[in-house]
From TrEMBL:
InterPro entries: EpmC
Name of protein: Elongation factor P hydroxylase
Domain of life: Bacteria
Organism: Nitrincola tibetensis
Length: 179
């Protein structure tokens, strides 16, 4: 099945625009979460360059963010751009475990390939095998303990639209296939 961002935008709208006053927006450049400003009705999750994977990743950050964080631009998190040192990269990877595990689960529900992103092409070379293991372990945890409510709502909507298995099961994920 073709993976069109317009479908993702519509599915997100159906799931969350009314209840969380949030919409998914195709952006031209870097991704950004913008809370609604005075006179603006909706918060916006802006994903980069119209990429399907960027949309899933930014949605994952939104799904993890609590109510207070959703009132802050980019959820109040720091972002160190590409070119990070090994120490900066290690910190980046620690905070990216849950978002990337969530993105993997959403990708699986959409029947879309998932690739771990270390987002540091011009930085110090590092071994990301431990990061991949941590993302996989978080996916396993979600499979065993269940997903947060909003994440489960969206995962089920994706599975329904893309006609993928509706159950969240660890057998659908493999560390060996993780790129």
């Amino acid at each position: 099945m073709e993976h069109r961002v317009d479908d993702l935008i519509r599915i997100f709208k159906e799931c969350f625009e009314g209840t969380y006053q949030t919409r998914l927006v195709r952006g031209d450049f870097e991704p950004l979460y913008r809370p609604a400003q005075p006179g603006q009705a909706l918060h916006e999750i802006v994903f980069a360059h119209g990429f399907f994977s960027s949309a899933l990743h930014e949605i994952s950050h939104w799904l993890i963010a609590g109510p207070q964080r959703r009132l802050l631009e980019d959820f109040g998190y720091w972002y160190e751009p590409d070119g990070r040192t090994a120490a900066q990269q290690a910190l980046f990877e620690r905070v990216e475990i849950k978002p990337q595990a969530t993105e993997w689960i959403l990708s699986e529900a959409a029947g879309y390939r998932f690739r771990v992103s270390t987002d540091n092409l011009n930085g110090e070379p590092t071994d990301n095998s431990e990061f991949k293991r941590a993302v996989y372990q978080q996916v396993c945890h979600y499979c065993e303990e269940g997903l947060p409510a909003r994440t489960d709502i969206f995962r089920r909507a994706l599975a329904d639209f893309y006609k993928t298995p509706s159950d969240l099961c660890v057998k659908h994920f493999s560390l060996a296939n993780l790129r």
